[in-house]
Specification:
Elements: E1 28-32, E2 41-48, E3 57-66, E4 72-74, E5 94-107, E6 118-121, E7 126-129, E8 140-142, E9 155-157, E10 167-171, E11 188-191, E12 203-205, H1 207-214, E13 224-227, H2 230-236
Parallel strand pairs: 1-13, 4-5, 5-6, 11-12
Antiparallel strand pairs: 1-2, 2-3, 5-10, 5-13, 7-8, 7-9, 10-11
């Protein structure tokens, strides 16, 4: 069994304050503030800065996003653990909080014209493991040509007959090195199916909007995704130094 691991930008703990979860090296914030924990839609804005001492400047573009069919629950990311609803495997909720993003785009096409991004053309042998009992839980697994599929059917096929998954980016909720079994897996930015669609816990958007967003930052910007209901965003804005 061969595991194909992307290289992620993991920061030393001393760069992340116990009260300010945004790393000093972060130069791009993707921020969405749904109205409530039950929201299934929101608007995403990109904020940029050139150094930790500079203010966050909002990009002029905004992006409509689609969230989990059952709203949101606290995820596992850069932020301290919070009381309240907690993200669980299969609950249909998008993880709330602050999260690093992966630095690899996954897609169906041979290559992508998105400078600054590594790209993986997925095949029907690319899996993302969703089985909480597996040692590979919430990881990308590539099977060799004759290798059998895992006995458990709890995995996400990275390539399937679904255009919504033709381009996606991993949201590092509950990700290595601190994966907790059963706390949710396979959370991505991907494409939406319709103007009224919902997801099983991911963040989805229209393709043109997604591509525009991906051209606005790269992994070198150490991007962080902030997904917080409005009341929570207001509560943590000052202490977490959010714009």
């Amino acid at each position: 069994m061969r595991l194909w691991l992307g290289i992620f930008f993991l920061l030393p703990s001393f760069l992340i304050s116990a009260t300010v979860p945004i790393p000093s090296s972060c130069r791009a914030l993707l921020i969405a503030q749904p109205e409530s924990w039950d929201s299934t839609k929101a608007t995403l804005h990109l904020y940029r800065r050139t150094s930790p001492a500079d203010p966050w400047i909002r990009d002029s573009n905004s992006h409509s996003i689609h969230l989990g069919r059952n709203g949101l629950a606290w995820g596992r990311g850069l932020h301290p653990q919070q009381a309240g609803p907690q993200k669980k495997e299969g609950d249909g909720k998008s993880p709330a909080g602050l999260f690093h993003l992966g630095n690899i785009l996954y897609g169906y096409d041979k290559k992508q014209d998105l400078p600054g991004w590594r790209y993986r053309q997925v095949t029907d042998r690319d899996l993302w493991i969703e089985d909480p009992s597996s040692s590979l839980y919430n990881r990308h697994l590539i099977l060799s040509a004759h290798e059998p599929f895992p006995p458990s059917e709890q995995y996400h096929l990275m390539r399937q007959a679904d255009p919504a998954h033709s381009l996606k980016l991993f949201i590092r909720h509950n990700a290595t090195p601190e994966v907790k079994a059963g706390s949710g897996s396979a959370i991505f930015f991907h494409l939406c199916r319709s103007p009224d669609s919902v997801t099983t816990g991911c963040t989805a958007m229209e393709e043109l909007s997604f591509r525009q967003l991906l051209r606005s930052f790269t992994p070198a910007d150490q991007p962080v995704y902030v997904l917080l209901p409005t009341d929570e965003y207001v509560r943590f804005r000052d202490s977490w130094k959010l714009p």
